[in-house]
Structure prediction request, 265 residues.
Amino acid sequence: MMSLPSLRHVKTAGDAGVVVLTLDRPPVNALGRALVDDLDAACDWLERAGPDAMARAVIIAAAGKCFSAGADLKERQGMSEDDVRAWVPYLSGTFTRIAGLPMPTIAVVQGVAAGGGMELALACDLRVAEQQATLGLRETALAIIPGAGGTQRLPRLIGPSRAKRWIFGAAMHTAVEALADGAVDQVVATGEGLAAARSIASGIAANGPVAVRLAKKAIDEGMNMPVDDGVRNEIRRYEGVLGTADRLEALKAFMEKRTPEFKGR
Prediction:
């Protein structure tokens, strides 16, 4: 089992197959260089963590009353145009790394998830929002556009028409409105987001970790393929589970009427 990294603005914890990354940059977890560097470093660790390690599912949560208010506008004011040209691809690339992590990821949104904060949540596979949360892509109100995946991930999630309403209007949406649009998967009472995400993550972690990772890969790859190509790709990914000890353990456990013990290999 690999030891968790020690980071300044992203606290790490893990047990029972679930890793929790907690944004911790008061007061609003603004996405400045230091916080994004820590998210990038966390990706380094998670990409190396095999399915037999503790990282079978990842939760991205936040300390304080706010998930993330988005870009650090004070830091941005000190940037030249060339600085911004370099910064936006770095931020976007970090979120793309999160989206591409091999294990499932769940965002827990409490308080505000605006702009880049919303884009971080969109980079996760699933989103749990607390009842008082507000979510939105505010960039056009600041005379810019989403630059960390928002114009691409939101329409794929909720459809282009709804995504255009979110992005063109730059409005903030309640958790219930976001659920109705399909931008979040579950709404829970205030203070219960992390527990709800842990419940989802624990259910994921109990399944065959190699199979879960390959299922995620098949889904993500297939989204960019015609359905026939996607089905053929699914069969190729299925090959990845055939030689695993976990597959044989599942069959044996079924015959013995017990819960399988998956090792991630």
